[in-house]
Amino acid sequence: MSDKRHLLGMTLDELRQVAEECRLPKFAAKQVADWIYKKRVVSIDEMTNISVANRTSLSERFDVGRVPAVECQTSTDGTVKYLFSAEKDNFIESVMIPDDERKTLCVSSQVGCKLGCLFCMTGRQGFSGNLTSNEILNQIYSVSEAEDLTNVVFMGMGEPLDNYAEVKKTLEIMTSDYGMAWSPKRITVSTTGVLPKLKLFLEESNAHLAVSIHSADVAQRKTIMPIEKAYSITEVVSLLRQYDWSKQRRLSFEYIMFDGFNDSVEYAQKLISTLRGLPCRVNLIRFHAIPDVDLHTSSKERMETFRDYLNSKGVTSTIRTSRGEDIFAACGMLSTLKKEG
Q1: Which residue range forms the structural domain that includes residue 225?
Q2: Residues marked as catalytic
């Protein structure tokens, strides 16, 4: 493996340091950013407005850092799952979800996950490491649909706010004029509620936020989401109430429904009580069964009853369409444990 440092994933300030290290003129940093993030080159040789001598100097220490997917699978519903290599012989998965004019890429931020949610295959895999901004952006730049993507969601493998420094860098590059120049409205970051980093995210980014709640009953949530012991959902919601959700940023709550566990009107009432007065949407998600877990999928009827009850009480709720289940690309099903083994 090359020991060269990767340019993809560097901020403009970091590229200025690169230019200085390679004795390039200061304006070369902006040129390099333009070639990588806007023109999407895969090699330094393609940077034709940089002199041959300066390209040679760059190439001695750096490469672009684009890596193609190892494999991809296509679902019967058009969803595409990509497998990418990561450092230390690890692998990660990304999922592209087409929907009419939209093409949404679900990206991973970690190899595995530390949080161990009972219902999630990624959590069952354990944690092998954080992804770098290079590895996160490589997913966005290296899928076949890269130039047609309309949205990116940080809902793949890992807890994004548990890798906040690299996720923050990625968001800066995605939304900066020197980078991808995307509106933050095209990006959603998901979290289980890592409070200290959540506060930073809310202050430093305008991307949308999705909170994985899955139960508003604190005692019940602890049984399926160990993070509840460290950062209670009541504290998370209390923090969220301190911010203005009436403008460009959107707040949603993800709620996986388990048969006979959290899908009765009683739990809908608890959810309404917890979220009362907070401008938000609740996305109800069908549970995708995983091995050796004694949780089951709620019926369509119970999900619809739950949704209708929330809506009748003023909490906007929808049932998310399940995508890619046949290729293990649906919510909670991502895992590269076998690949790593």
Answers
A1: 71-340
A2: 93, 331
